[in-house]
Amino acid sequence: MKAIMEVHDLSVTTSEGATLVWPISFTLEAGVPLTLLGETGSGKSLLAQALMGNLPPALNASGRVIIDGENLLEMPPQQRRRWWGRRMTMLPQEPWHALDPTMRVGAQINEGHRLVAGLEPAAARHAMYDDLEGLGLADSEFKLPAQLSGGMAQRAAFAAARAGNAPIVIADEPTKGLDSARRDDVVRLLAQALGSNGGLLTITHDIAVAEQLGGTVMIMRRGECLESGSAETLLKAPQSAYGQQLMAANPQHWLARHQHFNPADDTVLQARSVSLSRGGKSLFDNLTLNLYRGEVLGINGASGSGKSSLGDLLLGLVKPDAGKVERAPGIASTRFLKLYQDPPAAFSPFWSLGTLLHDLCRLHKLSWDSVPPLMERLGLAPDLLERRSDSISGGELQRFSILRALLLEPVFLFADEPTSRLDPITQQQTLELLVELARERHCALLLVSHDKALIDHACDRQLSLEAPIRG
Ligand SMILES: Nc1ncnc2c1ncn2[C@@H]1O[C@H](COP(=O)(O)OP(=O)(O)OP(=O)(O)O)[C@@H](O)[C@H]1O
Ligand SMILES: [Mg+2]
């Protein structure tokens, strides 16, 4: 078997000398997918960035990464950059970081085919249409990234990253927030990109993705590789205690909730005969819904079926085409809140998280005392407060956004895919904590997820939105 990339003792350290990834060695074989599973904050994304050569300036990679006899870590930065998109490409954890917010989706993909792959204009346009079609984005050619749903942005970023046909693909959580049909589509595309000669490193929290990809699996925790082996054996019978816990926490094994919630008639929000359509398609029609304090209502549905739009409508961020939404009187508007699907977009990267939270407390006259215990319950180490939002892991930031929302004592919290960036163990813990706090504080929790098992597990009632016509 041909080694397409050899990694020897690769480690990542901070300029103060702390080790974030301990020396790790592995080989990316041509045609054999390598999938990285592991705890949130365990160093998976940093490992991927070290391989690509786009670590933040305060972090250093050492060791050797060999492709075609050349050690990437010794290559001048300009030369490495010339490899991006051509020899190796990365789909970063946050699709918004891979897309230009001012440029239409079709044009971005087209540019990759033309400028990176070097296709003639007509061929590039053709390839762009094929990509959009294949990813169910046929009607998104002229949309700006901000007009896409989270799952759609993920697929658009995938097409843009792949346009240069680089043989080595590194994909950081390429299926988060996607329903199972879309997830299968992305897995198929990754496998296709790999072919028999390419290299593929996928980072995922979704064990089903690791199963579907096959090949080799590595499990990471706290900056270390705990074990690696063939997907077939490792996923069925992991050797490490952590690997066993991780497999057992797969949402597919979670139990559905049996406890029934009795709403004391404490309505916090009421939607009366609301309808909404987008781009000529009706998302929901004549929908009437009462939300009670302390209840957990789940919304399940395919990517793009209108889950987030319904939540936005209930919050008053989107106006219904017909009908109306009424709030219980006498409650401050700051207590009707949304947990955004995309945490990096909701935090300024220019201030430390500690400063942002202190400002929030000052602005809303809240006591700081509730911050440390809540951080502990969310599994967030105190030293993370000193860092900025772009210097912590995706899952850590997701838990910070939960923390920030809970500090404001919401009476209605619309949580849009609130655990999509967490490993199954942390996901379960965080979800249970969110439900527990909603009950304790009499907050109505509207939980949106593409994952039916998660909704079944956590919610008192659920609403399923029909899938739109697939493009
Ligand atoms: N710029 C930075 N400076 C210091 N520490 C950092 C920086 N970026 C990330 N870290 C820390 O390094 C650790 C690993 O981060 P990384 O983003 O690789 O985790 P991850 O395994 O990808 O997690 P997730 O599954 O949540 O995305 C985390 O504890 C994170 O807080
Ligand atoms: Mg990550």
TrEMBL record:
Could you tell me the membrane topology recorded for this protein? Peripheral membrane protein
Instruction: Indicate what this protein is called per its UniProt record.
Output: ABC transporter ATP-binding protein
Q: Which GO terms describe its molecular function?
A: ATP binding; ATP hydrolysis activity
The UniProt keyword set, sorted, is: ATP-binding, Cell membrane, Membrane, Nucleotide-binding, Transport
Give the subcellular location: Cell inner membrane
Quote the Gene3D superfamilies the UniProt record gives.
P-loop containing nucleotide triphosphate hydrolases
Asked whether the UniProt record includes Ligase among its keywords, one would answer no
Q: Which family does it belong to?
A: Belongs to the ABC transporter superfamily.
Q: Write out the GO cellular component annotations.
A: plasma membrane
* Keyword Cell membrane listed: yes
The ABC transporter domain is annotated at 5-247, 269-469
